[in-house]
Amino acid sequence: EEGSLSPFIRLQEKRKEAKQVQKALEEKQEAFKEKMADIARRWRELHAKEDQLKTYMEKSVRMLKEDDKLRVQALKKAIREREKKTQKEMELLRAKKELEALKKEHQKLSNQVQKYSVFKKYLEDVVKISPQFEDIQDVISRYKLLARMHKDLQQSQEKNKEMCKQTKVLLDQYRAEKEDEILQYQNELEQLQQCFGQAQSDVRFWTTRWADIQNTNAKNALMLTTMKMAIHNLFQ
C-alpha cells in the first residue's frame, strides 16, 4: 500500500503544485493583464499628455511669437519715444539758445534805445519848434527822403565822375590818334615838299634843257633852210 500510495501521493502533490503553479500563473497573467492595462492606460495618458504638451508648445510658440512681436513693437515704440525725446531735447536746447540770443539781442536793443533816447528827445524838440512837422515820423520821413536824395546825388556824381574819366580816356585816345595822324601828315608834307623842291629843280633843269633844245632846233632849222637853198642854187 505504501508502495502504491507513494506515486499517487506524489501525483496529487504534483497536481496540487500544478494547480498552485497554474493559479500563480493565472495570478501572474491577471497581474500582467492589469499591468498591461495600466501600461496601456498610462500610454494613453502619455499620448494625451503628449498631445496636451504639443498643444501647449504650439500655444507657447504662438504666445512667444506674439510676445516677440509685442516686444519688437515695444522696442520700436521705445526707440521712437527715445528719438522723439532726443529730438525734443535738441529742440529745447536750440530754443534755449535762441532764447538766450533773443535775450542778448533784447538787451542790446534796450541799450540802444536807452542810448538813442536823447535823439528821441531831440526829435520831439524839433517837432515842437518846426511847424512843418506834425510828429517824429514826419521828421524821419523827411530825413529818409533827404538821405535818399543825397545817395542819388552821390550816385549821380559817381556816374558823372566815371563818365568824365571815360571821356578823358577817350579824349586822350583821340588826341593821341590825331597827334599820330598830324605827325604822319607832317612827315608826308615834308616828303611832298622835298618832292616839290625836286620837281621845281627838275622843271628848271628841263626848262633850260628845253630852251637849249629849241635853240638847237632853231639853229638846225636855219642850217637846214640854208642847206636847202644852197642845194636848190646848186641844182639851178
| Amount of helix | over 70%
Shape, please? elongated
Count of individual beta strands? 0
User: How many angstroms separate the termini?
Assistant: 248 Å
**Overall residue-averaged pLDDT value:** 81
Please give the count of helices: 2
Strand content range = under 5%
Q: In terms of structural class, how would the helical and strand content be classed?
A: mainly alpha
Summarize the structure.
The protein is mainly α and 236 residues long. 97% of the residues lie in helices and 0% in strands.
List the helices and strands and how they pair.
Elements: H1 2-129, H2 136-235
What does this 3D model show about the protein?
- The chain has about 240 residues and is mainly α.
- The chain has a domain at about 135-230.
- It has helices at about 1-130, 135-235.
- This is CCD42 protein.
- One of its GO terms (biological process) is spermatid development.
List keywords for this structure.
2 helices; elongated
